[in-house]
Specification:
The chain contains 1 helix and 14 strands. The protein is mainly beta. The radius of gyration is 20 Å and the shape is globular. The relative contact order is 0.24.
Length: 197
Amino acid sequence: MVLFRSVLLCCALLATTAASAQTTQRIRGTITAFEGNVLSVKSRDGKDLTIELTEKASVATAKALTLADLKPGDYVGSTTRKRADGVLVALEVHALPRTVREGHIPWDLEPDTMMTNATIASLVQSAGGQELVLKYKDGSQKILVPSGTPIGTTISADRSALKPGEYVVLSANVNAEGKMTMSGRIQVSKDGVKPPQ
């Protein structure tokens, strides 16, 4: 009985170790091929990556919007960088489903950027652009959105949108051996419009 319990404990520890060895990697890059369930991507830093898509993986294509399409009460995300005077300046704004976790967190679109996922409290004209006030559970952020800032959303699509030459943003699971799998949502460019984030 003691030996049996020891074997069970070892198996549980191995399973926990295997699970913890898996990491998540955000990937941005250009599709080089899509065959069967395997997506090949040239990442923005020049790496050739192969990602196996599970049955749960979904696809959404990018669509351009304007600030006029957004209104108080809408749920959005915005990548920002802080100016020398402390003002948060938007690099992009995109409409989001409310299932995406709200908050203000470090982001990797560019160095020293943050992501704010929140509800629009107000959107008013300001010097240098429009001022967007985003409110979330633990606070709020005031963001300057200069003229020309990319504004977008995504629309549900199917895997036929995954064509060589299109740009994608996705998060893949990477196991201890480096194998990449993906079961979430792939955002893909369409008609020259890139996923904003």
